[in-house]
Amino acid sequence: MDRIKFLGDVKIRPTLIQLLNLGMIICSALMIWKGLMCITGCESPVVVVLTGSMEPGFKRGDILFLHMNKEPIRAGEIVVYNVDGRDIPIVHRVIKAHERRDTGEIDILTKGDNNQVDDISLYSGGQLWLNSHHIIGRAIGYLPYVGYLTIIMTEMPIVKYLLIGVLALLVITSEE
Amino acid sequence: MHSAVQRANTAATIAAILLATICAAASFLDAFNSPSLQAHVQVVKINRFRRQLDGNDEVKMTLKMSMDLTSLFTWNTKQVFVFLAAEYETDTNSLNQVSLWDHIVQEKERASFQVKVPTKYPLIDQGTNLRGKKVGLVLHWHIMPISGRMIQGKMPLSNFSLPDSYTTRS
C-alpha cells in the first residue's frame, strides 16, 4: 500500500498538481460565494439563526437565505439588521414602519416572534428606530438544521480544528 | 474495489442532492397554492386614546376578529404568522404601518377561529395626527415552510375612524 508517501519519496509534479486542484476547489467555492453576494445584494446571503427569539418559526441552527433590494421595508417582513457597535446581526420581524414623505426614509421597529417586548432595548444608545441602512437583508427562504454545524464549530473550536485536521489529512493522502 | 470511505462519500453526496431536490420541489409546488381566505375585523371599543408624555398619540382598542386561514396551509407549511396592521397616512409620513395584534397558527385544524381581544401592541403615532384619522385595517400573513421559500400576503379589511378627541387626558 503506497497511500502514505514517505518524505524522501515525494514527487514534485504530482504534488504540484494536487496543490493546484486544492486551489481550484477553494477558488470555485469563493466564486460561488461572491456570486451569491452579487445576486442577492447582501453582504452575507446566508445566515445561521443563533437564538430562539423567533421560535417556533426559526430554531437555533437553521439557515436563512437573504435578499436585499431597493423596495421599501414593510411591516411583517423578517429582516436581518446590525446595531451600531455590535457585530452579530439580529433576525427579527418588523412590527412598525413609518415612511417619511419628504426623505423617503423609513423608521422601523422590530420584535422577535418569541419575545415579549420589542427590540427597542437592543438598539444602541437612545435610538428609537431602525432605518434602511441598518438592514442588511430580508429573509426569503429557509432550511432547517443545516447551520447547526456552524454553531458547534463556533462554540466549541476544538471541533473546527479537528474537522480541518481530518480534511487536510484526507487531501494529503488521497491519490487523485 | 470501492473502499468504505468512498462508499460513505458517495452515499452522503447522493443524500445531499436528493434532499436539496426535494426542498426545491416543495418550494416550487408551494407557488401553485392559490389561497382564498376569509376574514373580518371590527373595532369593538376604543379603550384609551390619549397623548403620551413624549408627545405622541396613543390608541388602545378592543378588536373582534374572525378568520379562516386553512387555505394557506400546504404539506410544506410549518406555521402561518398572521398579524393585523393599522395603516394610515399623515402630513409628514406617506405610510404608517403599525401592528396591533399577531398570532402564530401551527396546525391547519386551528386555522379558522374568532377572537375578541385587546390590541397586543398600542397604535402609537409619530406625532399627534390621530384625532379623527381614518385608519385602514389590513390583515397580513407570512407562511413559513418546513423548508424553502417563505410567502407573504395581505388583505385589506375594514376601515374605521378614530374619535375627534382624546378619551383620556394625559
Automatic annotation (TrEMBL), chain A:
Residues 45-140 form the Peptidase S24/S26A/S26B/S26C domain. Its main location: endoplasmic reticulum. GO terms for biological process: signal peptide processing. It catalyses: Cleavage of hydrophobic, N-terminal signal or leader sequences from secreted and periplasmic proteins. Its EC number is 3.4.21.89. It is found in: Endoplasmic reticulum membrane. CDD domains: S26_SPase_I. It comes from the Eukaryota. SUPFAM superfamilies: LexA/Signal peptidase. Catalytic component of the signal peptidase complex (SPC) which catalyzes the cleavage of N-terminal signal sequences from nascent proteins as they are translocated into the lumen of the endoplasmic reticulum. Specifically cleaves N-terminal signal peptides that contain a hydrophobic alpha-helix (h-region) shorter than 18-20 amino acids. Belongs to the peptidase S26B family. PANTHER family: SIGNAL PEPTIDASE COMPLEX CATALYTIC SUBUNIT SEC11. This is Signal peptidase complex catalytic subunit SEC11. It comes from Rhynchospora pubera.
Automatic annotation (TrEMBL), chain B:
The keyword ATP-binding does not apply. InterPro entries: SPC3. It is a single-pass type II membrane protein. GO terms for biological process: protein targeting to ER; signal peptide processing. It is found in: Endoplasmic reticulum membrane. Essential component of the signal peptidase complex (SPC) which catalyzes the cleavage of N-terminal signal sequences from nascent proteins as they are translocated into the lumen of the endoplasmic reticulum. Essential for the SPC catalytic activity, possibly by stabilizing and positioning the active center of the complex close to the lumenal surface. Belongs to the SPCS3 family. This is Signal peptidase complex subunit 3.
